[in-house]
Amino acid sequence: VRLTRRRALAAGAAAAAAPPAVLAAVAQADQSSQTILASLSSALTLELTAVESYDFFLASGVLSARTRAPVRRCRDQDLAHVHRLRVVIERLGGISPHAPDPATIPSLTDATTESAALDFATALEEQTVGAYMATMRMIYRRPLVRTVGSLMASDAQQLVVLRQLGGTPPVPSPFEQGSPP
Amino acid sequence: MEARQPPAHRRSRRELAVAGVAVIAGAAGAVIATSGGGPKRPPRAARAHPAPLATAAELDIVTLGGLLRFERHCAAVYSLATAALHGTALDVAVTLLEHEREHARAVAGAIHDLGGTPAPAADFAEWAIATTLARGRGPALGVLERLEQQSVGAYLDAVEQISTEDVRVTVAAILGAEAEHLALVRGEAGRPQLGPPFVVGTGGAEGA
After folding, report:
1. What number is the average pLDDT over the span B68-83?
2. A interface test, pick of B198, B200, B202 with most A CB neighbours within 10 Å
3. Which tens digit of pLDDT belongs to each residue from B150-170?
4. Cα(B181)–Cα(B175) distance, integer angstroms
5. Which of B84, B61, B64 is nearest to B142 (CA)?
6. Which of A18, A171, A179, B102 is the most buried (most CB within 10 A)?
């Protein structure tokens, strides 16, 4: 995650004026902010990947009529998550990642059946939940915790829909932790 | 300075999740009010304030205590629902009953880990809900949907308040599961499983 120009300038100005102890504290705080930004960017990349993947499946004709509407709903929700995360990252002084080119998403084009597409989407949403859980470990700023919790819960609900469409147990565990990206 | 009263539904959700925190916050607020530069009030010798909580862990224990009471309430409602439902709705209720029991065990375990003692279970107080559950599948699933909405709201409040990292992650994992329960119950009721893209839960603590 790169510093914005404004943050770089502000950091430079602070370095010129602050005593060493303050500089050390600022450096530690910046490190923490950078870690949080990296984690949020990781979640955003997964949300962007999900949107691209849903668009790919919807355009490819691999989905049946029964599956298209709920998949489109998941896609629309993830797009809303993307917008929210971009705002959050910008407010924290970071730069949001770009949407991946579908051709570069591993295994996406290998999912040539509805079952494979649903498995792919389920795995992706589980990773997204996992990314939010990882972020949850490192944030103590209360409004941000609520935002991340709300996004994570939304993706967990998508998992129920995708698992049911895929014929697997919709809530397999009393604790939804997702999976590591 | 007077604190503004939150709306009733908000208040009840907070009470649900963090019953007891309001008392502590009230005590802290009194300290702040009397330490300012305004005219001094005479001391209230007769009023006993609870001892202020010294650590973040103690505050977490209070928050978890509210969740434990709510999980026990959820388990009681699901237990009643298993007697009222049939077929796939019964399967859902049985699964979610076991999940709520697991949540209660996890929350009680977290209280223990933080050095607290989980409160004993209260007396059964779900008779009013039992009447609604007995009206049939539709009303019963309506009760369960509202219960899960409250649960999501309570856990969102709690995850915001918990400061112990491991406990926050456990609470977040339960939040994820409760959101899944809500989608599952909605689907069983034939309602859209996915609501707005930002899950918020609802307030109100029916019977809790």
Report:
1. 96
2. B198
3. 999 999 999 999 999 999 999
4. 10
5. B84
6. A171
Q: pLDDT tens for residues B88-102?
A: 999 999 999 999 999
The C-alpha atoms of residue A47 and residue B65 are separated, in whole angstroms, by 35
Within 10 A of A142 (CB to CB), how many other CB atoms are there? 12
pTM above 0.90, yes or no: no
CA-based nearest residue to A137, from B58, B172, B176: B172
SS3 per residue for A130-175: HHHHHHHHHCCCHHHHHHHHHHHHHHHHHHHHHHHHHCCCCCCCCC
- Alpha-carbon separation of residue B28 from A43, B11, B33, B54 (angstroms): 37, 18, 9, 12
DSSP B7: P
State the pLDDT at residue A141: 67
More confident of the two residues A32 and A40: A40
Give the span between the Cα atoms of B125 and B72, in whole angstroms: 11
Residue where the block lists tokens 């960017």: A41
The DSSP symbol for B5 reads P
Using an 8 Å Cβ cutoff, are B188 and B141 in contact?
A: yes
Nearest to B176 among A137, A153, A164 (CB): A153
**Contact of A19 with A100, CB cutoff 8 Å:** no
For A165, name the nearest residue in chain B, comparing CA atoms only: B187
ipTM of the complex: 0.84
For residue B206, pLDDT beyond 60: no
User: Is residue A117 within 8 Å of A72, Cβ to Cβ?
Assistant: no
- Determine whether the interchain pair B99/A142 forms a contact, defined as Cβ–Cβ distance below 8 Å: no
Tokens representing B56? Answer: 């973040």
Q: Spell out which residues of chain B touch residue A70, defining contact as CB-CB under 8 Å.
A: 193-194
Q: Give the angle subtended at the CA of B36 by the CAs of B33 and B39, to the nearest 5°.
A: 90
**B132/B141 Cα distance (integer angstroms):** 10
State whether A174 and B163 contact (CB < 8 Å). Answer: no
A146-155 mean pLDDT: 97
- Using CA of residue A108, residue A111, residue A117, residue A123, what is the dihedral sign? negative
Q: Helix B56-84 and helix B137-161: axis angle, to 10°?
A: 170
